[in-house]
Amino acid sequence: MALRSGTGVSGLTRVWEQARPPWGLRMMAQLYAGGWHLYESLYRLRIRRRVAISVPVIGVGSLWVGGVGKTPVTLALARHWHQQGKRVVVLGHGYGGRRYRQVTLIEPGVPAAPLEVGDEACEARMALPNVPIAVGKSRVAVARQAIEYWKPDLIVLDDGFQHLPLARTVDLVILPTEKPFGNGYCLPAGPLREPPSGLRRAHALLWMGEDEPKATVSLPAFRVRTRFSKPLPLWGTEPSVPLLPQERVQVLTAIARPERFVAMLQREGWSIESVAVYPDHHDFREVDLSHYAGKIVVMTAKDGVKLRERLPRTCRAYVIPIIAEPEDALWRWLESALISRSSDRIDR
Length: 348
Known about the structure:
By secondary structure, the protein is α/β, with parallel strands linked by helices. Helices cover 28% and strands 21% of the residues. α5 (119-127) packs across α8. The mean pLDDT is 91.
């Protein structure tokens, strides 16, 4: 299997595997952590106040910068409550889209464009066609407009653990079982957005992975399994010949921690001929993909929303959605937590 790194792939991910990264990066990580502590203390000491809104908010986030499954978990939560008959809104940041600094409300059934609202919002639209989506950098403003327009029963906030201005009813933090805190360093020496002490803000921990957790935490903790859904043709039409796992495929992806996606393919017996990795959120507009003509290409849903207009139509291209499946105990805990915490007073 050949591995190719796309233009601009950062070498930092290799540094993050080191127990002791280069001295300069460690010093920068200390400065980063100090700056984060200062920012977080403004809210902890109530110098700045978190804004509470009129409906419950479930936050999904992580200490990691990416690649731990936040969006699949967000979609699983929204899908669950939608199936329960609740009016749910998925709230995202829209990173990578032109409308990132604006408030954008996407009605159920309305397509989303990655260049406008980012790839994760488009992934949510693909997975949840009947659920409204709201995106924008200022989550408080986005949440308020979503409430005014849709009057939801519940908001699920994707990738929001480090976004402190918007208060959450419940904050769920995802950590990988095999290496919960990476090499222990914050950016840029390690993969952490904030030090492990940030877990004190969380209400529950979600362990993502097949291994037994390598750390003990004093929080309610639940396991989340991931699996592949049926491969979907990229252009939305069923091919005359179905995709079979034993066929030799080219993997093309621009996600954080792509090795997890590749490992899942390998565990399920896929025959991988090559893997091309690009930086997370890469938009592929400057990439020549003509060499994929006539080949079988597989990718995640996050990649598919951008590659639909870029890959040659002569290739057989498939999206393989990743489905998160929390253990049943999480649903029972969430129902209880939403009832009890919604009755508590949240500082405005």
